[in-house]
Amino acid sequence: MTIEQLIWLVPLLPFLGFVINGLGRKSLSKGLVGIIGSGVILAAFIISSFIFFSLQGDTQKSHEVFLFDWISAGTLHIPLSFLVDPLSSIMLLIITGIGFLIHLYSTSYMQEDEGFGKFFAYLNLFVFFMLLLVLGSNYIVMFIGWEGVGLCSYLLIGFWYTNSAYASAAKKAFVMNRIGDLGFLLGVFLMFNFFGSVEFAKIFPQAANMLPGNNTLILITILLFIGACGKSAQLPLFTWLPDAMAGPTPVSALIHAATMVTAGIYMIARSSALFDLAPFTQHIIAIVGAATALVAAIIALTQTDIKKVLAYSTVSQLGYMFLGLGVGAYTGSFFHVLTHAFFKALLFLGAGSVIHAMHHEQDMRHMGGLRKKLPVTFLTMMIGTIAIAGLPPFSGFFSKDEILAHAFQYSPVLWGIGVLTAFLTAFYMFRMMFLTFSGKYRGAHHEENHVHESPAAMTTPLIILAILAAIGGAINIPHVFGGNEWLAHWLTGAGVAQHELDLSHSTEYALMGTSVVAAIIALIYAYTRYVNGARVPVADEAPRSVLAKISYHKFYLDEIYDFIITKPLDAFSRFFYSVLDKKFIDGLVNGLGWSTNEASKGVRLLQSGNVGFYIFMMVIGIISLLAYTFYYI
Amino acid sequence: MEQLLLLIFIPLAGALITAFAGKSAKIVSTVFSVASLGLALFIALNFIPDASTQFEVNLPWIADLGIHFHAGIDGISMLVVLLTNLLIPIIILSSYRHDYHNPAAFYGLILFMQAGLLIVFTAMDAFLFYIGWEAALIPIYFICAFWGGKDRVRINMKFFVYTIAGSLFMLMGIIYLYLQNPAHNFEINAFYALSLDSEQQGWIFWAFFIAFAIKMPVFPFHTWQPDTYTAAPTQGTMLLSGIMLKMGIYGVIRWLLPIVPTGVQDWATLAMVLSIIGIVYASLIAFTQKDAKRLVAYSSIAHVGLIAAGIFALNQQGMQGAMVQMLSHGINVVGLFFVLDIIFSRVETNKIEELGGIAKAAPQLAITFLIILLGTVALPGTNGFIGEFLLLMGVYNYGIWAAAIAGLTIIFGAVYMLRMYQNIMLGKTNELTITFTDIQGSEKLVLYIICALIILLGVYPKPLLHLTEASVQQLLEQVNQKLISVK
Hints:
Number of helices of chain B: 20
Number of strands of chain A: 2
Shape of chain A: globular
Helix content of chain B: over 70%
Strand order of the largest sheet of chain B: 1-2
Largest interface: A-B, 67 and 81 residues
Low-confidence stretches of chain A: none
Oligomer: heterodimer
Order of helices and strands of chain B: HHEEHHHHHHHHHHHHHHHHHH
Order of helices and strands of chain A: HHHEEHHHHHHHHHHHHHHHHHHHHHH
Distance between the termini of chain B: 39 Å
Number of strands of chain B: 2
Helix content of chain A: over 70%
Low-confidence stretches of chain B: none
Strand content of chain B: under 5%
């Protein structure tokens, strides 16, 4: 079996799962739904692995598989075709691999939910669209997946739609994504005009012959970056992602780790040939990324909802990845996508395990002391926390430091922001861990004895992910540690631009040392505060300092957007409707029509009201007109 | 040629028989409309998708005035003929739950209107075109005025007068062209061949444009539309929004562009600006509408604005996008109005804030409504995407800023549609919606057909694009050649 023969199965299987579970959600048993839903993803993972390994042994690193002609108009031809190369094949592994673990976990987590079948149908659909996104051989097929995951996030965030706040969060996610999508679309139009194609294989070779700083390329890349900002939750479009935790926790794991938010980074890595020629855009990306990383980390410091902390940490980590993309560390960013997928899936599923045990309590102020009760969850989440904090030798350390080293080379200021963010990250993550697992139990007393570890279907994924989060860094050990940077070599086969670090080993050691020390200080500070000091965040209404207020209220961004965008647009809407439309334009029309109206009164008298008679007369009229014809023939 | 005559004759005969069919009018009209659809499909299957005019009929009619019964079908006509004959049975089927008083007249009028529409969409003689144009208007006027809701008489008088006024401008234009024509006939090809100077073309442009712009409607000629759509019985709204407004779009493509290309070129910027203003303006108004039917009415103005913009961009992508979107918009808007009709039939209101939580009680309706809505907001994989993508690309080729502003429909459409969906379907059930029953029988059938079409055309639009491609290309070449020869 060759790659060409197999690849279409990878997206088709989840799609079949969606159809079967969607149609059979009422008639199939939960067990069967779970088996089908997870089974199709597992099968897709097995095929993806096969494809991945056969690609390794293959001299030809990129395979285009044509399915059918989709849209054509004039010179525009858009085939539905797939591209299998090192970049997409590794994405397939992440999506189906982590996706499978999340499905497996969900069979237990969602067991009590009445929408079990629907949930699995949506999850399958989500994976399907994500696979389409990474497999597309042109920007339009990518766009199907791009908007498709937007739809699925809408469906899943609003899964418990009877809660109108959740439904609003779903809508917000969709709309914010759409803002980015418009940018993406315009970028695609521009590319079509400029390159005469939307196919990767036609665009990138042409770009290779261009000089850096081409204005059109800058515009194209900025528009694409706007798209990435929506999907990958960057400033100013990130506010949907924290709200997205309204969905069931496995959904958060799926959105934050395996799918959706990685799309923007994937897209830019895929288009690195273009971005590399647009230094201006790269500059913007680096700044936006660094700013997002810092802002989200500051917000995460004071959050009290365990999922919100994780949500902001995702935004912050995505900021890192964009910082990496901006400074030209495409491999580093992609590396971080990979390691982040491991530890963030782990952390969300772990949080889900805690929430499950605590009977849907998400507020860390009501947790505490869960270490003994949830040992597996605690241990695995601790590994995830160490990984995200960037402590060696866990995976996050390697990927984060690769980004930071490139950032240092690009601009020490950006590096400084990166290290500061690393410090904050370690602090709020350990804060979360200590608040949840150390100290005394602060939850409802009568439930204390009912808190127990989750079943194996939930802990097994945690353990697997914990192992990956621990050792995942091995795929791209830098030269400075005697590694061979396997991932960088692998991605070169997909045309992902590589930039060598031009730093001495001693500088590299110093940089790493700085960020590790920063993380350790943060850890100790968090320990003294929340374990020794046993501090618990204050109640919502309690007074806070100005800075804490800003952090706790997320820089008031939602309020600001509401004030400068939503409210004015609604005001315009009402003004346009009741004044401009009703009074002015329609007033003019009525004025103009008045005399005609008067004149038509006479005609109205001829109407008798018998419609059958009218039809009869009309048909007779037409027939007599026609008959006139035949009279003359 | 027999097929084309038959195509017009079936609904005409159907109208007559239905008008005297009494209580069985529903069934009789269904039979005729399905037969029409069958014939249209047959014609489409035998249609060779090149640029030629096929199934042509050319009979002398009122010879003294050089009027011919001249009709034919090219790719562009084929598409709108399919649209008409596809939607009419769906619209009739959608009325099955209703017991309209005087059904014989109601269904007879629908079929009569169909005949008028088919004449409009196939006419190659300006006089015939005009006859069809008015023949389609009269029945819809009656449908809205007799079976409509509150305040229908006043609203319909305005609608009627407004559109008639527009058509009179067109009539003047046609007569002027006739007088300029040395052959003294109303042949479309003779009109194409006329060489008019740019001032003449300007006048003709406006005469036609106003008629078409009112019909679509294009901003600022739209104020009749929301009231009319809201007050009309659902089937009337469907006929107006699904098919009738396409008369205006078709008119622009068939009559306006090729006859007065210089006029179009001179005024295209203005037409473009109006179209794009319409998109943003109507979308914004839709944001805060309280009545769902009115909200959809405004959204339709926005969508039609984009179609108009795509056409006035005068390029292949825009024009092909307009073609696909005519069909897609017809299907989707009929679906939306049907969903609102289903809701109204259960709870007697379309006021958004009085509803909520229906999804819980009616999951099937929730899913089908969502699919239609996704088609409307142009999600890839639905029919709406193919059209909007090509339209925006066409507008983009006209100018990046035009596309950026027109593209706001992508965002705004999601805002007002999802707001509506959330307020109607999601959230908690209230005392009004708690007893809501899910869709059944004919409702299911109609919604399933519509959803299937939405996905089918979104995933595999190739046959549709292929159908119109050659004709559109020829039309654009014709326009361009004429523009060059003027210079």
